[in-house]
Amino acid sequence: MKRIFIIVLDSFGIGALPDADRFGDAGADTLASCAASGALRIPNMIAAGLGNIQGVTCLPRANAPKGAWGRMAEKSMGKDTTIGHWELAGLISDSPLPTYPDGFPEEILTPFRELTGRGILANAPWSGTEVIAAFGKQHMQTGDLIVYTSADSVFQIAAHEDIVPPGQLYEYCRIARKLLRGRHGVGRVIARPFVGTPGSFTRTANRHDFSLEPPAATLLDAVKKAGLASIGVGKIKDIFAGQGLTEYVYNQSNANGMEHALGYARKDFRGLCFVNLVDFDSQFGHRRDSVGYAKALNEFDAWLPQFMAALGEEDLVLITADHGCDPGYAASTDHTREYVPLLALGKGVLPGDLGTRESFADLAATVAELLGVDFDTPGKSFAERLLKR
Question: pTM (2 decimals)?
Fold first, then answer.
């Protein structure tokens, strides 16, 4: 293949994994919740084979699917963005990243206060919108930083842009990132700027993630080492701490990310373009908005034909996700432990069932084989089942 596009519909799970009960997610199904909303209209992904995937019962099956289809199970011990993307890129994490259901310990907070010169508010698991509603006014009065976490391995810092400009907030995040190592090595430190007045605060698009470095070489490193393009769109640079990329661009929204992906489809390069569309997760999954999530899927589906029209004979598109975030799941507002879809599209793709893959890393093994890149991963390639002879 000349070019491979991996498009991650962030949090688009398609049903609970067998071990979901260990994560408190028994019965979760992001796709089913979107379908049940009554707002889902995704004819192009259905035509590609989304409804043909094992375990998917909420969509019609295509009689003659245009793509290859399957589902992937997460083998890593987690359900967060970092571990999910690392596994998509070929790394399996046997141990979960640290989480802080009771807030962060003083051995972290004390030096953080000293190095930033600011106090701390919240320090507990919170919804991102609820925490700024609860502490935003006090933050504006005192200048103290709103520090919070979630069920994921994250250290999040929220600050009003008039009190702490984004550039300064990013510097505070870099300080936290240096402190959060070893047994406190959280997956991501996240800057969460917001604006507005008490009672009407809104988060801005100036979010920035500072990720833990991958513990070993990933598919991105292998592609770059082989002299091919390794392009990141959206959060990819942050998730991989900038490693393994030859080029990157951030997204302001799903629409902006799709615009970037289409732009790269119209460019001439050889290699990999790894795209993350985060609004599904951040705007709709965590906010438990099934209708909004469904409409976002509709927008992606409507965009897909023009993207495919820009591709050549030797191009391949792999559509998948990194975890679930079921908008209809009432137990919490966190990610859910689910299978993720696997749709393969392109002029050279042989339509057929790719089955249930034992690991997200199978995708990395497949991409490496198709690009002719040397990469050691526990994943198992499905390349021979994917292409027309």
Answer: 0.90
pLDDT digits (tens, 9 = 90+) for 359-370: 999 999 999 999
Q: How far from chain centre, in Å, is Cα 333?
A: 16
The tokens describing 221, both together, are 């490193």
Place of tokens 């919170």: 126
Q: 């599209």: which residue's tokens? A: 345
Taking alpha carbons only, the member of 220, 224, 162 closest to residue 194 is: 162
pLDDT reported for residue 95: 87
DSSP 338-389: B-EEEEEESTTB--EEEEEES-THHHHHHHHHHHT-----S----GGGTB--
**Which residues are paired to 155 by β-bridges?**
189
- Domain 3-94+213-385 top-level CATH class: alpha beta
The two three-digit tokens of residue 242, written as one number: 């900038």
For the chain, the 3-state helix, strand and coil shares in percent, each to the nearest 5, are 35, 20, 45
* pLDDT confidence bin for 52, thresholds 50/70/90: very high
Tell me how far the alpha carbon of residue 227 is from its chain's centroid.
Answer: 26
Question: What does the block give as tokens for 96?
Answer: 């979960």
User: What are the CA-CA distances from residue 120 to residues 87, 131, 137, 217, 363 (Å)?
Assistant: 34, 13, 14, 36, 41
Confidence check: pLDDT of 20 > 80: yes
Q: Are 184 and 148 in contact (CB under 8 A)?
A: no
pLDDT at 205: 87
CA 342 to chain centre: 15
Alpha helices in 121-241 (DSSP H): 128-142, 166-179, 219-225, 236-239
- 309 vs 162: CA distance, rounded Å: 44
pLDDT top residue among 52 and 78: 52
What's the CATH number of domain 106-211, 3.30.70.1250, 3.55.50.30, 3.30.70.260, 3.10.20.340? 3.30.70.1250
Strand partners, 281: none
Q: pLDDT tens across 91-132, in order?
A: 999 988 999 999 999 999 999 999 999 999 999 999 899 999
- Give tens-digit pLDDT for 69-83: 999 999 999 999 999
pLDDT for the residue 151: 80
Ranges for all domains in the chain classified under CATH 3.30.70.1250: 106-211
Strand 352-357 and strand 120-125: the pairing is: unpaired
